[in-house]
Amino acid sequence: MAAAVGEVDNTIDIPGQRAALILGGHDFGSLTAAACAPWEAPRPPRAWYVAFTISVALLAVLGAMIFYLVFNGVGVWGLNNPAGWGFDITNFVFWVGIGHAGTLISAILFLFRQKWRTSINRFAEAMTIFAVICAGLFPGIHVGRIWLAYWLAPLPNQMGMWPNFRSPLLWDVFAVGTYATVSLMFWYVGMIPDLATFRDRAKTKWKQVIYGLLALGWTGSSRNWHRFERAYLILAALATPLVLSVHSVVSFDFAVSVLPGWHTSIFPPYFVAGAIFGGFAMVLTLAIPARALFGLKDIITPRHLENCCKILLLTGCMIGYAYLIEKFMAWYSGNSYEGFIFRARALGPYAWAYWTMIGCNVLAPQLFWFKWARTNLVAMFLVVMAVNVGMWFERFVIIVSSLSQDFLPSSWDIYHPSLVEILTLAGSFGLFLALFLLFCRFLPMIAMAEVKTVMPHADLHAHPHAHVAPHRAFDYNPDEFDAGRGGAAARRSPRGPS
Amino acid sequence: MKHGTKPRPPAGPELHGLLAEFDSPGALLTAAERVRDAGYTKWDTHSPFPVHGIDEAMGIRRTRLPWLVFVFGVLGCVTGLALQWWTNASDSREFSFLPAHLQGYAFEIGGKPLFSLPANIPVIFELTVLLAALATVIGMFAMNNLPRHHAPLLAQERFKRATTDRFFVFITAADPKFNATRTHHLLSGLGGSAVESVAASSEPAHLPRSLIYATTIVICLLLLPPLFVAKARFTKSAEPRIQLIRDMGNQERYKTQQVHALFVDNRAMRPQVPGTVARGDLRDDAHYYEGKVSGDWATTYPPQLEISESFVRRGQQRFNIYCAACHGLGGAGDGIVSQRALARDTPGWTVPTSLVNQTVIERPLGHIFNTITNGIRTMPPYGDQIPEQDRWAIIAYVRALERSQNAHLEDVPVELRPELR
Amino acid sequence: MNPNMPQSELSASRDFRRPAARVAGVACVVGIAGLAAGVASGYSAGWEVFFRSYLLNYSFVLSLALGALFFVLLQHLVRAGWSVSLRRLAEFAAGTLPVLALLFLPLVIPLWKGMPGVWMWSAPDVVAADPVLQAKAAYLNVPFFLARCAFYFLVWCVLARYYLHQSVAQDTDGQPRRTLAMQWWSAPGMLLYGLTVTFFAIDALMSLNPHWFSTIWGVYFFSGCLVGFFAFLALLVYLIQGRGQLASHITVEHYHDIGKLAFGFVVFWAYIAFSQYMLIWYANIPEETVWYLPRQGDTWWLSVSLLLLFGHFVAPFLALISRGPKRRPGLLALAAVWLLLMHWLDLYYIVTPRPSGFAAPAAPLHLTDLTLFVGLGGLFVAALVWPMTRWSLIPERDPRLPEALAFRNI
Predict the structure, then answer these.
(1) What pLDDT score was predicted for residue B408?
(2) Which one of A170, B196, B209, C235 has the fewest beta carbons within 10 angstroms of its own beta carbon?
(3) Tell me, what's the pLDDT at A151?
């Protein structure tokens, strides 16, 4: 059923026509079968087992490291007196950033009517939730006495104390908590129709029961669809400012301080752009192998990958802009502390991290100006891996370089991560990948109901006669449009000729 | 097939409705328009994805969900504002009738006002979004009658493709215009691929028994932690709390009055060796260390001190650090601590003594020294913080304050008088 | 190619040439009269007041043109279909940039001549007394400033002319390759646009208080440009349709989308403005709070600040959040007028308060603010409407025009 990639090139741009988003000549039935195949296969591909074993091993390492940390205290990390934040908060910001792409694709691209998002939104949303779980872990364990972490919540208590709402760290609790809740709901609500598909295709009693419970009795009723679509639109409209707010609040953790290199007003949009950048890199990191592994090349087509690359280029340029403005203002402000920290980043003890960041985040994505890089899987994968590394280093540079060299040279100290921190970071990838692999196997990885709406077969309202042959690379052309245009001309302008 | 849905007879004793199947969304759209025009009201169409234009074709009214979302958004906004005002900025004295753990707690951080609106915006925003999103999802579920445990349609074998690639029109028998024959006729004429009747299900769907047991057990287990919390909340115990993780509060060392078998007297803490004095602990000069001369308050400075201007300046510096907060920079008992306490009507506040009135002027030096060392009334002792020499320096400065605060023109040397204004 | 468009509909927009010429003529006369009145009132109020008012109103019209240029670039960058029937109007608005480049000259001629203008760093005696300005002199000096401004306007004029001319040329030859060329240039164009707008905002507006700095400043100015532009676009479409034009090309669906974009950028503006304010308020560093102090110091400016908060964010947020007003062109046009007013107020809030070391005039609002608004606004409208006498109001043969005509919101 699956056509080989490259058989039909849907990355060519012909003005006036829209490229097909689903290749391989699918109709609704074969598309559903293709999207359900990873779940319906008697057992997953061997690579899945290999990846899952490695992930679970890393997850075990994470568990051991957390256990060790809790019983011995944060002294097992390499934190020192000026550098009170190190890998812990770097990892937190890194994972929260990754967690932005899913909601961006689901919400913002939805509001912008980007139909191509339908093929990738479901697993990007899942990735978001798993990344937020990884992110939530780090502030939770870095507080030291983690059994008192509930003090962050505004609960009446015998001490008569409340949290300090003027602290950005508390805003984080609300922002990340809200974000986790809303993205979970967004993910689940969007998944209900596809869970119903699973329910109806399930072959065993247990699967019928479990997916039947998860699908909540969805029947695909149009009256339900109407409210469902409204709710989805509203959730998208709520999630869009939410996703911006979350990384803005994370940036406030740094920017409300008076520390050079942290306190600067561009931080909120700069962090948001960086989050989208890092998140899209992770989407591609997972999509490139997943589409090959699960036979989804007709659904996640070269065009989808190319569009993601373009977004990477755009957001990469945005953070390049932020780096530039930051550096320029550090000089322009005439503030010698600010100027010092930016010189120290480029030339000081963390220069290697800084130049890794610049190379991976600003220079590497520039390859995407060229179409061959946007359509060549190897080039693409190398760039997105560079971006994954670069975005981690961005947070590391911001956090550690500013902390370790602040106003008082006598208290400077270089931060070295301990083995525990390095293994905790590696373990968090285990948690992330293990959850993701389970998701690929047991939940609908493709938003089938949404993909069907962008297939040419579904587009019958605008031009009822236009049954486009689905194997063509383009589903739309002005000649066919001609007869359908009657509908548009018939709709009167709100203000007719006066 | 395997799970017990039997094919229904075409028209059972209890007819739930009639179902027509279509191949494409276009056919569904046309059919929906026809059913709508035929005047049916209790009917629905089912499709694997939202069909564009079906709302108009069926005459579905726009949902009121957005209004619900708006109301809850406003509620979230107000909640966020009220929560932050209540917990961080409300005056707990005005709400003293409430239990202490529900009163607000005003604490000052970084010089920010207690009620700092710019700092409150993020939490207000998050709660607005949270409540609005919850209202969206819960409202949508409620309006759609979700979750529903069972629907007769779901038992229909043909209907399984409604979530894959088939499109259905379903008219319920409850519709006032419903007539088994005529409705069947209408549906057959719509160009669908099949029409069949749906029986109202007599047997409720069963969940597997093991699932029910497992769920019950999990719920019972989930109830345990809150029960433990409740028990801890309402019972008292003399036992120290369980500490799974050794904290700094529980270090491996001996405390005072503990038993240790190493020593003959079994005491872990060791007394001083008889006849010895620790370095720096010899305080045999009563005048210098206690302010007493042969049992009475000393009226002179100890002879080893040289009362010079630098000595008085040292006293001024120490006074401004340790004493002025309460007694005031001029010694009149009007320090900022006292001013704030008076402004806030702090219950039980005793106004600090004025150091420049006649009582203190007449007080012997040794008496003042003793007051600094050991405290008096509500004033805490400062002996541990201020070394003896500095205490005497403070006294010298207090004497200077007494002079200056009660000075007359004649006290000023003639040559300095022109500088006065 | 678009052979489907009935000629009658297209010729309708050709009937517009005569009224357009009339509007352009009247606007030109009004503009020149306004400028003359501005010079007259500036003569009595002092040149410092005059130049500030000029900069204020100049930034206003420039921001609309820059917003339009962004819109044109963006539509090509994302290959948008829905907006094609609106794009020509934006191209016209961006096409005013060469005229605006000329109108920028009065602000820089004093610098060239060594006279004190609005930018205090250009006065050598001020710099000589100020070590901070000496440290910035490598950037804030007259020749470099002029060179930078020349570069900004060069980039903008080239981009605006290129997109207008390609689009107009496509009206005659219908070549799809023009669309591809415009798309190709939109990405580097966007990069140049982002940098030039940022540094223009820093040079022209931030350096009014040369001690002060904020890294988000370029984004703040940009967000204001977009709020202003989308309001202006809604109003423009409403007025043109009021003359019986574009009745079937621009439908309620397009109004809805313009409304959504205006709403979105209102929120974006609030987000950026809040980020800047909150971070500076929270850190409370004197070298940063110095910008906000005169803007909250007295009753007048505190009122302006609060009016911005409620008028530039809260009121339009509530007005545009629901579907109804965005789909009622009359209401949307009303909201657009309000938003334009608020956008002007935002620039007034940026430009007018004097930094410490500058004597503030007796009245915070001067007659020149109004006369120059009429003057520059009139000339802007004339430059905008004049091309309508030559070219069609829509890209007639854009390959994606059918999509725009068939466009419906979900």
Answers:
(1) 83
(2) B209
(3) 87
- Whether C2 is covered by a domain: the verdict is no
Does residue C3 form part of some domain? no
- Does some domain include residue C51? yes
HEC string for chain B: CCCCCCCCCCCCCCEEEEEEEECCHHHHHHHHHHHHHCCCCCEEEECCCCCCCHHHHHCCCCCCHHHHHHHHHHHHHHHHHHHHHHHHHCCHHHHCCCCHHHCCCCCCCCCCCCCCHHHHHHHHHHHHHHHHHHHHHHHHHHHCCCCCCCCHHHHCCHHHHHHCCCEEEEEECCCCCCCHHHHHHHHHCCCCCEEEEEECCCCCCCCCHHHHHHHHHHHHHHHHHHHHHHHHHHCCCCCCCCCCCCCCCCCCCCCCCCECCCCCCCECCCCCCCCCCCCCCCCCCHHHHHCEECCEECCCCCCCCCCCHHHHHHHHHHHHHHHHHHHCCCCCCCCHHHHHHHHCCCCCCCCCCCCCCHHHHHCCHHHHHHHHHHCECCECCCCCCCCHHHHHHHHHHHHHHHHHHCCCHHHCCHHHHHHCC
Interface of B with A in 229-258 (CB under 8 A): 245, 247
The model's pLDDT over C111-129, given as tens digits with 9 standing for 90+, comes to 877 776 788 898 888 889 8
Of C135, C180, C279, the CB nearest to A15: C180
Contact at CB, A15 and C287, closer than 8 angstroms: no
For position A496, what pLDDT does the model report?
36
Domain that holds residue C96: 8-405
Q: Which residues of A touch B147 (CB under 8 A)?
A: 216-217
Does the CB of C297 have a partner CB in chain A at under 8 Å? no
Mean pLDDT along residues A396-414: 91
What tens digit of pLDDT does each residue of A335-359 get? Answer: 899 999 999 999 999 999 999 999 9
Instruction: Give how many domains chain C has, as a whole number.
Output: 1
Q: Report how many Cβ contacts below 8 Å link chain A to chain B.
A: 232
Q: Give the pLDDT confidence score for residue B3 in this predicted structure.
A: 46
Task: Convert the pLDDT of each residue in C34-49 to its tens digit.
Answer: 999 999 988 888 888 8
- Complete domains list, chain B, with CATH: 7-202 (no CATH), 286-403 (1.10.760.10)
Q: Is the pLDDT of residue A486 over 50?
A: no
Residue A464 is given by DSSP the state T
Residues of A in contact with C191 (CB under 8 A): 317
Pairing outcome for strands B292-293 and B43-46: unpaired
Average pLDDT over residues A272-301: 93
Q: How far apart are CA B301 and CA B365, in angstroms?
A: 7
Name the token pair of C346.
């935002």
Position C10 scores a pLDDT of 53
pLDDT for residue A468: 39
Q: What is the pLDDT of residues C155-207, one digit of tens each?
A: 999 999 999 999 999 999 989 999 999 999 999 999 999 999 999 999 999 99
Size of interface B-C (CB pairs under 8 A): 15
Q: Does domain A15-492 have CATH number 1.20.1630.10?
A: yes
Which of C144, C213, C281, C328 is the best substitution to test chain A (most A C-beta atoms within 10 A)? C213
Structural domain spans, chain A: 15-492
Does residue A207 surpass a pLDDT of 60? Answer: yes
Strand B167-172 relative to strand B43-46: parallel, antiparallel, unpaired?
A: antiparallel
Instruction: Out of A32, A217, A239, name the one closest to residue B164 (CB).
Output: A32
Tokens linked to B136: 């969206």
Residues C278, B119: C-beta atoms closer than 8 Å? yes
For residue C264, the model assigns a pLDDT of 96
Is residue A478 scored above 60 in pLDDT?
no
Of B66, B70, B118, the CB nearest to C282: B118
Interchain CB distance below 8 Å, B46 and A161: no
Residue A482 pLDDT exceeds 70: no
